[in-house]
Design a protein that fits this description.
The protein is α/β, with parallel strands linked by helices and 128 residues long. It has a domain of 67 residues. It is 39% helix and 19% strand. The protein has a 5-stranded parallel β-sheet with strand order 4-3-2-1-5. Pfam families: DsrE.
Length: 128
């Protein structure tokens, strides 16, 4: 069994990469692999959209990934920047990192910790 971490960075307005990779994550999960999905950057905006728009292209793929427990989190720093952190938490998605007052730079508190994922033997798949 292999381990895969999907890092979704695709911005709103471009649903193909998000939908396709959520489907790939499901396929790998069905085949018995360990799969996690993280939403980062502009892609954090997909979570409220997928939650609220049942007719959207991403909705079905997102819901299935969520039901399977594949969505491991979203970047708290980016969610805070886009002012959607409350919506993401309300959807039951964990925020990794976050906006910290007095932080020395935007990269200081981003999530997920990709180095830790690699140390846990995850293969990183960046989707953007």
């Amino acid at each position: 069994m292999s381990k895969f971490a999907f890092l979704v960075n695709s911005p709103p307005g471009n649903p193909g990469p998000v939908a396709n990779n959520l489907e790939y994550a499901r396929n790998l999960d069905e085949a018995g692999h360990d799969v996690v999905v993280y939403f980062d950057g502009q892609a954090t905006q997909w979570i409220p959209e997928a939650e609220d728009d049942p007719d959207g292209v991403v909705h079905e793929y997102y819901q299935e990934a969520k039901e399977r427990g594949l969505i491991a989190g979203a970047c708290g720093y980016c969610a805070s920047f886009f002012e959607i952190d409350d919506s993401i938490e309300a959807a039951g998605i964990a925020l990794d990192g976050g906006a910290v007052e007095g932080a020395s730079g935007p990269g200081d508190h981003h999530g997920p910790d990709v180095a830790a994922l690699v140390e846990q033997d995850y293969q990183l798949i960046n989707v953007g």
